[in-house]
Amino acid sequence: MRVTYYLEVLSSWCTWAEPAWAELKERYKGRAEFEWRIALMRQEDFPVTRSQCEWFYRRSGGTVMRSPTMLNSGWFEPGRTDAFQNPSLVAEACKDFGFSDDRVRLALSRAALVDGRKIGTMEEAVSLAARASGVPAKKLRARAESAAVKARVAGSTAEFLSHRITQRPAFILEDAIGDKAVFSGIVRIEPIAATLDAMLSDTAAYASHAAHHGPVPPK
């Protein structure tokens, strides 16, 4: 069983989905493999002003998630065309130094969306990730700006789009018998966990049948 989580480091909805992601990994430890991949948002998917950003945060955090705290728009820098992808490139680069877990990308997200730090600049994103990971900033920046990392992020973004979905977070569930479930824009654990349970049950049933009756007879 494989669960792939497509995310954007600066996405507020991905921030709201993190508790569900953490609980899924804990609840299905040893029964499923979990991996996150970057799915960059388009420039037009982001707010164009800080006040618009705060409007979105009031809707998602206050109305939908009923959070007692509001996300911080201080990270937002109007007019920067590179600001949206830099933190995701840095998070992806950290994988090459052994950080394929959630630690560094969560540190980046929290710095922006909770603390309001302007991690859209490559310098700030690298500085924060270097402290979170222990990787020298110079090495980390070189990797984040490398053609290999940019190509990898472009590839995972294309994978995300190949599912004909547009909303992040997205969760792709795939099992050993060829079934696949796609969740796009879902931030709560209940529907994902229910589907995982059903897919694991079906996979176990196939294994039981094979043990009792053997492989499919030849034609």
Secondary structure: elements and pairs:
Layout (H helix, E strand, L loop, with lengths): L1 E6 L4 H16 L5 E6 L11 H15 L21 H10 L7 H11 L8 H12 L3 H8 L2 H16 L7 E5 L5 E5 L4 H25 L6
Parallel strand pairs: 1-2
Antiparallel strand pairs: 1-3, 3-4
Number of domains: 1
Give the N-terminus to C-terminus distance in angstroms: 29 Å
- For the largest beta sheet, what order do the strands appear in spatially? 2-1-3-4
Say which CATH homologous superfamily is assigned.
Answer: Glutaredoxin
Q: What would you call the shape?
A: globular
Q: Could you say which structural class the secondary elements and strand pairing correspond to?
A: alpha+beta
Share of residues in strands: 5-15%
What name does the CATH topology carry? Glutaredoxin
Oligomer kind? single chain
> Based on DSSP secondary structure assignment, what is the total number of beta strands?
4
Radius of gyration: 19 Å
The level 1 CATH classification is Alpha Beta
Report what the structure shows.
The chain is of the alpha+beta class and 219 residues long. It has a single domain, classed as Glutaredoxin, CATH 3.40.30.10. The protein contains 8 helices and 4 strands, in the order βαβααααααββα. The two termini are 29 Å apart.
Give a short synopsis of this structure.
The chain contains eight helices and four strands. The chain has 219 residues and is α+β, with helices and mostly antiparallel strands.
